[in-house]
Amino acid sequence: MVFEIVAPTIKKIYYIKVNDMLSYLLVKRICKIVIEEADHDIAWKILGSAITTAVNSGAHELIEECILTYPGIIWYDVGGFYLFLAAIKQRQERVYNLVYQMSGHKVYAATQLDDEDNENALHLAAKLAPPHRLDVVTGAALQMQRELQWFQEVEKLVEPSYKQALNKNGKTPRMLFTDAHKDLLKEGREWIKNTASSCTVVAALIVTMAFAAAFTVPGGNQDDGKPLFVNRKTFLLFVVSDAVALFSSSTSVMMFLGILTSGFAETDFLNALPKRLTIGLLSLFMSIAATMIAFSSVLALVLQGKVTWIAAPLVIATSIPVYLFGVLEFPLLVELVNSTYGRSVFHKQNARRLH
Fold first, then answer.
1. Are 277 and 195 in contact (CB under 8 A)?
2. What is the pTM for the complete model shown?
3. Would you tell me how many other CB atoms lie within 10 Å of the CB of residue 128?
4. What is the pLDDT of residues 85-133, one digit of tens each?
5. What is the pLDDT of residue 278?
6. Side-chain-side CA neighbours of residue 36 (13 Å)
7. How far is 265 from 188, CA to CA, in rounded Å?
8. Residues in Cβ contact with 94 at an 8 Å cutoff, skipping those fewer than 6 apart
9. Residue ranges in the chain assigned as alpha helix (H)
C-alpha cells in the first residue's frame, strides 16, 4: 500500500530530473552550434532572444549557459534594460543572484540611469512586480513583504545618492514605492486583519475551555479536596495538556491582538507583522493539539474499564481536527517561516565558472 502511494511520486521526480538533464544537454548543444557559426550577429540575435525569454520565465540555467558560451551576451538589451536590471524589474531572484556574482556587470548596471524616465535600479525595485511574480507567495501581506525585501536588497547595492535621486516625475525611489504599492498595502492590511480576527475567535474559545477545565477536573474531588484520579498517570497527562492549551492559546490571542492593534505601516510588513502571525499560528496549532490530548485523556479516565471498545475510536477521532488544521494552515505557516526566518531569496548560487 505504501509503495503504491510513494512510487508515483518517485517516478514523477525521476522524470522531472531526466527532462531537466535533457533540456540542459539540448541548450548546451544549441549554444555550441551557434558559436561554431563564428558569426557575431547570429550569436547575438539567437542567444539574446534566448536570455530575454529566460529572464521573463526565471530560467537562470539557460542564461548561465549562454553567458558561458558567449560572455558578451551579458550586455544584451533585454526590453530596454541590461540583464541585471531586467532581473530586478521582472523580480527573478535566481537570475538576480546569478548576475550578482559577476561583480563587474553588477556594479556597472546598478549605476545606469534610464534616460527616458531618469530612473535608477532602485526606482525599478520600487515599482510593483508583474502579477505572475506577485503570485509566487500566498496572500497580499506576504506579497508586500516580498516587495519590501526586493527594495531593501537593491537599496544595499546602489550608491547612497541614488536613494534620494528624483525621476522625471520628481519622485525618489521610496516615494515611488509608496505610490506604486498603495493598493497592495491596502489589500495586505485587509488580508492580515481578516486572518487575525478569525484566529482570535478560535484561540479565545480554547482559552475559555482550557480555563474552565482546570477547575472541573474529571471524576470530581475527594473529601479532602484532592482530585479523585490524582494518582493516575492519565490524569497527569490531562493536567499538563490542559496547561499547555491554556498558555499557548493565550499567547496566540496576544499575538493576534498585537496584529489587530498595529499601525500597519509599510515597514511593519517586512518583519513585525509576519513574525506575530507566525507565532500566533504556531501557538494556535499547539493549543488545538493540546486540547485534543486533554480531551483524549479525559475519555481514557472516564471510560477506563467500562466501555473499552469505544474509547480507542474516540481517541483516534480527536486527531482529526489537528490534522485538518495542519492541512489547511500548514502551507501558509511554512511560507511565513521561510520568508521571515528562513534563508533569504538573495543568496549565492552554484554558478559554473562565472565571475
1. yes
2. 0.80
3. 18
4. 888 888 988 888 888 877 666 666 666 777 677 888 899 999 999 998 8
5. 93
6. 6
7. 11
8. 58, 60, 349
9. 2-36, 40-57, 60-69, 83-90, 93-100, 103-110, 121-126, 131-134, 139-157, 173-180, 182-215, 233-260, 272-303, 308-317, 319-340
Region for 216 from its dihedrals, namely left if φ exceeds 0, alpha if ψ lies in -120 to 50, beta otherwise: beta
Count of alpha carbons within 13 Å of 320, Cβ hemisphere only? Answer: 6
Angle between helices 40-57 and 2-36 (to 10 degrees): 150
Are the C-beta atoms of 110 and 156 separated by less than 8 Å?
no
Go through the chain and tell me how many residues it has.
Answer: 355
Three cell numbers, residue 240: 499538563
Residues 6+ apart with CB under 8 A from 56: 90, 92
Q: Average pLDDT for consecutive 10-residue bins of the chain (355 residues)?
A: 56 70 70 70 79 83 81 77 84 86 65 74 91 88 93 88 88 93 94 92 90 71 58 77 91 94 90 92 90 81 64 70 78 85 71 52
Phi-psi region of 248 (alpha: psi -120 to 50; beta: other; left: phi over 0): alpha
